[in-house]
Amino acid sequence: MNDEQFAFFQQLVETTGPSGYEAETQRIWRDRVCDAAAEISTDALGNCVAVLNPGARPSVMLDAHIDEIGFVVKYIDENGYLYFGTIGGFDPSTLPGNRVRILGTHGPVIGVIGRKPSHLLSEDERKQAPDLKTMWIDIGARDRTEAETVVRVGDAGGRASGSRSRGHSLSDRCLRRRIAHRRQRDADESRGDGSRHSQRPDAVSAHCV
Asked: By three-state DSSP, how is residue 93 classified?
């Protein structure tokens, strides 16, 4: 992987795109493969399909999902803290202290997941597993009014790694990078006779970790 390929991979991995909110990550991938594909389309559900050689047989489909598990804002309290639900499955014990990126009203908003500090927990609370209801996202707002200028109930987000050496969605987007690279590598080969592309490939390679 050269520097240019790594820059694309880093951008893809670090862009927030939880299930149902993947438009920006799909745009990044689509922009990457558009010059290498003979045909490219996005359906009503947001699935992006890039076709290299429409008339070739047999046809092979490389498939990978681009969404990630994330959060959705459910309530903003008077102190400006965001209470949230999950999109996908999380172990709540792993969440406190996580940096998150929320797709806010005017762009991404960075926050951190908090909970009652350990020295304030009762003896019974110490024995219980953390509960999402006892956690919140702190975006640094003074109060609800300030928070609502950048975030609304219903906005979604995901974890933010902020690092070149790790990411929050490597499992799915690593393969998306590979598919984009393969499309570009093969772009100079024959694109077929331009006949109508069938939506039923002869072989499919799908990956999800």
From this structure: helix
4-35 pLDDT, tens per residue? Answer: 888 888 888 888 999 999 989 999 999 999 88
In angstroms, rounded to a whole number, what is the distance separating the alpha carbons of residues 103 and 36?
Answer: 30
How many CA atoms does the CB half-sphere of 145 hold within 13 Å?
A: 0
Q: Whole-angstrom Cα distance, residue 209 to residue 195? A: 35
Q: What is the pLDDT of residue 194?
A: 47
Separation of CA 19 from chain center = 7
Give residue 118's identity as a one-letter amino acid code.
S
- Cβ atoms of residues 145 and 138 within 8 Å: no
- What domains are defined for the chain? 3-66+169-199 (3.40.630.10), 70-159 (2.40.30.40)
Number of neighbours of residue 181 by Cβ within 10 angstroms: 17
- The pLDDT tens digits of the residues spanning 58-98 come to 888 888 888 999 999 999 999 999 999 999 988 898 899 99
Does 175 have pLDDT greater than 80?
no
In one-letter notation, the amino acid at residue 132 is L
Retrieve residue 144's tokens. Answer: 């609800």
- Return all residues near 67 (Cβ < 8 A) that are at least 6 apart: 17, 18, 19, 20, 21, 22, 25, 172
The angle subtended at Cα 152 by Cα 120 and Cα 141, nearest 5°, is 45
Q: Say if pTM beats, i.e. exceeds, 0.85.
A: no
Element containing residue 124 per DSSP (H, E): helix 123-126
Distance between CA atoms of residues 5 and 168, nearest Å:
19
